[in-house]
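Structural biology now treats backbone shape like a language. To illustrate, our science desk offers a sequence and the tokens encoding its fold:
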Amino acid sequence: MSVDGATSCFATSYCDVWAQDCAAGEKCVAWSADGDADLGGCVLTRCSALAADPVAIGGVCEVETGPWSGADDCEIGAYCWDVDPVTLEGVCVSNCNGSEANPVCPDDLRCFVGYGGWLTACVPDCDPGAPACAVGSACVTTVGAASVCLPSSLGIPGAQAQACDHSVGCGDGFACMAADAVAGLCGSGELLHCGV
């Protein structure tokens, strides 16, 4: 597969981030098949070569060509999260373990599953009524009603009536809901928007 935007979003060759079913010396990671730096478009998974000296979860990592290229130096079962688009550095986070039906993360973290299940991450949970996420992240309530801290680099909308994606949600106390349920948006033609 190509990471330069030439690969179709309907590619049939992909791996399972839950099973980590790539060949020895590779890991399964989410990547942006159409080249979007913020995962806003076509999100798939692919097998990516493991680094010679992989970075452990919680360590500073680097990506090769862009924030969601799928090519980073994190250990198997982890990937480079919240990557700075200039320095191409981020932090290694763990993929969720278990299965999508029964995700598992360490006790102090919660499993975020987004973009059709292609992207999983063990991240801090939060209270949307009194969010206390780190600077540069937002408290987001996801489809399964779990509230987690997600980095702003995911392009999380955080204002009334902004278009949203159910698999990612909205930040700053908003929820992703049908447009006709959001004040001032009746008949807008858009399917989902942030609202309270």
User: Anything to note?
Assistant: The chain has a mean pLDDT of 80. Residues 1-123 form one domain. The chain has two domains: 1-123, 129-195.
